[in-house]
Every structure is written in structure tokens, then in C-alpha cells.
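Exercise 7b. C-alpha cells:
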């Protein structure tokens, strides 16, 4: 029993010794590590890598003019995105300030409608080549949020002049949303009101094509005059169409025949008629019909020639008094030289020459006093052939009608 107690006591002493020895070893190792690494910087546990994207500089190194020229060359969508860029340029202006200036000055961005109130005080800045933009400095974050909200909700956030400029762009001209937006501008509503008072209805898309073929000054001047006079008469409508016709508008030519047909046939001078004929679509029914109506009226030779070309017919030229056959002057002079000097000179009668018959025209323009029987005798064509060729159910002819003639047999 005493031996067992002695053994347990020895085990306790051994355990205590091992414990003390372990603690001493830990202290020694800790001291060794401390003296070994006390002068070295700590090593990070993650290795740092260089950034893949360079940090955006706080300010643009370019000048305001350089940035404005770059923004001016940007597409519209990219320029609108620049309204979110607060990066500084110079003189306290940010990218978004200059982007807004380009939008307002060159794209007619409707800033007043975007802010929903009066515009802040602007400043002018040059972009080179004599171009000047209007800058609105000092806009608050809240105002820029309102501008961005306006851009996000409005499909076409521009003034009437901006919409008109887009309408003249071939890439955007046929966008129906652009047309619908332009229909609500005061300028377009003024034109629409003028044509609503006419007897012939005109579609909105026809008026859109008409005004887009002119220029902005024409439209604004007309709108200002109408606002003052409220003239919705037919002469005002005719003058409006003629102004666009003289600008080379094909739509004006078509609408003039559609809404003011009798005026276009009877009241226009030869120069305007020729201009109208050149603007009409080639080889179209409306052009041929108008040309035939002009041929039925007393017009100058130039208009008759142009009308016959448009109508696709040959018209027999009118005889003039000076076209009467005269004695050949050269033959008379030769005869006079052959006479003796003592004989009195006289003018010999010219020999009667048989004139060659003129080629038969392709058609005959019915004039007052004409009948189908007279035409058949004049051109030596049977009545049956004339009826068949012109698909006539009766012999009644109308003034100005074109009667087709068969080719002459050789």
C-alpha cells in the first residue's frame, strides 16, 4: 500500500515537471521569434495586384473649348448620357455642364420644360470657328436630377425647332413618334388649322412632309403672321403652297393640285406651271392629267412643249403668220444678177413648190369646232379606227380631249 502511494506521488511530480518544462520552452520560442522578427515589416497575407482599370482623374486635362468641340461631334444618344458625368474640366465647369450647353445650343434641348420653371442666368462660351454656346453654370444636383428624369421620360426632349431639325434628318424623318410629337407644336397646329378650312381634307402626314421640305424661318414667319391676322382664306392657303413650291417642295406641288386644282390650271403663270410640272412625279397619273389640262388652255410654246412631253403625246404646232411660205431670197438675187443693166429689175414670182406633207402626229388635241368626223377626214383615218383606238362609245368629244391617231402607213 505504501508502494502504490509512493508511485502516485512520483507520477504527480513527473507531470508537474513536464508542465513546467513545456511552459519554459514556449517562453524561449516566443523570445526567439520576437528577437528575430522585431525589425522586419509585417508581410501581408494577400499579395496586392495592380488595378486593371486606371483610376479616372479628378479633372479633365483638356480645355473647355476642346471638350465642347468633342461633345459637339458626339451622337445625340451619347451626348445625352454625358449629362450624368460630373467630372470637372476647367473654370469650375463639369462635363455635364458642357454637354447641356451643346444640347441646348445645337440640338435645341427644351431646358425650360425640363426644369419646369424659369431658366437660370446663362453664360456664353466660344467653341472655336466663331461658334458660341450658352452655358448654365451653378445648376444644383436637384436640377440635374430633374433634367435626367425629363430625358428618361420624354422620347423627344426638344423644342419645336429641335423637332423640326430632326424631321429633316433622313435617318429620323419617318419615325412615327417624332411625327406625333411634332403635331403638337404651335407651328404645326397653325398650318393644320389653315388647311382644315379648305374643301379638300389633307392628312397630317402630308402637312408634315410639306413643312419639312421648307426651312424653319419660313414656318415661324408664317405662324407669327397667322397669329396676328388669323387669315384662313383660300388665297392665304394658295400663297402658302406657292411659297413652298418655289422652294422646290414636291409635296407642295401635289397638294396644290389636290386642294386648289382649278387655281393651278387657270391662274398660274407659265413659269410657275413649268416649275410645278417639273416637281410632279415622272410618269404619274396626276402629272399626265395636269399636263393634258394645260395643253387644253392657251399657253406659251415652252409650257406646251413641256406639257406634251409630260403627257407623252405630240401636239401639232400652231401656225404663225410669219411662217407663211416666202419666195426664196437667194433665187431672186441670182435672177437679178443675170439681167442686163439696161433692163429694169423686177422680182420674179417664185416657182410653185409642192410642200412635203408633215408627218402625222401621235394625237390630236380637241379644240372648239372639232368633231370626230372632221378629225377622221383631216388625218385620213376611218371613224371605226378612231373609235377603236380611243375606246369611244359615242362620237361626242370634249374640249381638251386627246384623240390618239394610228401611225401613218408608208
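Sequence design result:
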Amino acid at each position: 500500500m505504501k508502494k502504490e502511494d509512493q508511485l502516485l506521488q512520483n507520477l504527480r511530480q513527473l507531470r508537474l515537471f513536464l508542465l513546467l518544462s513545456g511552459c519554459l520552452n514556449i517562453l524561449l520560442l516566443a523570445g526567439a521569434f520576437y528577437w528575430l522578427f522585431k525589425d522586419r515589416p509585417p508581410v501581408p497575407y494577400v499579395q496586392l495586384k495592380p488595378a486593371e482599370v486606371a483610376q479616372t482623374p479628378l479633372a479633365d486635362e483638356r480645355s473647355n473649348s476642346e471638350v465642347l468641340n468633342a461633345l459637339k461631334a458626339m451622337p445625340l444618344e451619347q451626348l445625352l448620357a454625358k449629362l450624368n458625368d460630373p467630372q470637372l474640366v476647367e473654370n469650375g465647369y463639369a462635363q455635364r455642364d458642357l454637354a447641356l450647353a451643346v444640347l441646348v445650343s445645337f440640338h435645341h434641348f427644351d431646358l425650360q420644360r425640363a426644369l419646369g420653371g424659369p431658366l437660370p442666368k446663362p453664360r456664353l462660351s466660344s467653341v472655336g470657328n466663331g461658334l458660341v454656346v450658352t452655358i448654365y453654370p451653378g445648376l444644383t444636383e436637384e436640377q440635374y436630377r430633374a433634367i435626367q428624369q425629363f430625358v428618361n421620360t420624354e422620347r423627344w426632349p426638344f423644342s419645336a425647332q429641335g423637332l423640326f431639325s430632326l424631321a429633316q434628318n433622313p435617318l429620323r424623318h419617318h419615325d412615327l413618334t417624332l411625327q406625333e410629337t411634332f403635331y403638337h407644336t404651335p407651328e404645326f397646329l397653325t398650318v393644320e388649322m389653315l388647311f382644315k378650312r379648305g374643301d379638300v381634307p389633307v392628312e397630317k402626314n402630308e402637312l408634315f412632309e410639306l413643312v419639312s421640305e421648307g426651312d424653319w424661318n419660313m414656318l415661324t414667319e408664317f405662324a407669327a403672321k397667322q397669329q396676328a391676322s388669323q387669315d384662313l382664306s383660300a388665297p392665304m392657303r394658295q400663297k402658302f403652297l406657292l411659297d413652298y413650291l418655289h422652294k422646290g417642295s414636291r409635296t407642295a406641288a401635289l397638294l396644290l393640285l389636290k386642294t386648289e386644282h382649278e387655281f393651278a390650271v387657270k391662274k398660274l403663270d407659265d413659269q410657275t406651271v413649268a416649275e410645278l410640272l417639273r416637281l410632279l412625279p415622272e410618269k404619274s397619273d396626276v402629272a399626265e392629267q395636269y399636263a393634258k389640262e394645260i395643253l387644253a388652255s392657251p399657253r406659251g410654246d415652252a409650257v406646251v412643249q413641256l406639257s406634251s412631253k409630260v403627257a407623252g403625246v405630240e401636239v401639232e404646232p400652231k401656225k404663225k403668220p410669219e411662217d407663211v411660205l416666202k419666195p426664196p431670197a437667194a433665187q431672186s438675187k441670182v435672177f437679178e444678177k443675170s439681167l442686163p443693166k439696161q433692163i429694169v429689175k423686177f422680182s420674179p414670182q417664185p416657182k410653185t413648190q409642192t410642200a412635203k406633207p408633215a408627218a402625222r402626229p401621235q394625237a390630236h388635241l380637241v379644240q372648239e369646232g372639232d368633231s370626230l368626223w372632221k378629225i377622221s377626214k383631216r388625218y385620213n383615218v376611218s371613224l371605226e379606227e378612231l373609235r377603236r383606238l380611243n375606246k369611244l362609245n359615242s362620237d361626242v368629244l370634249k374640249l381638251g380631249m386627246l384623240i390618239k391617231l394610228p401611225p401613218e402607213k408608208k
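Instructor comment: The beta strands are 123-128, 131-135, 363-365, 402-404. The chain has 20 helices and four strands.
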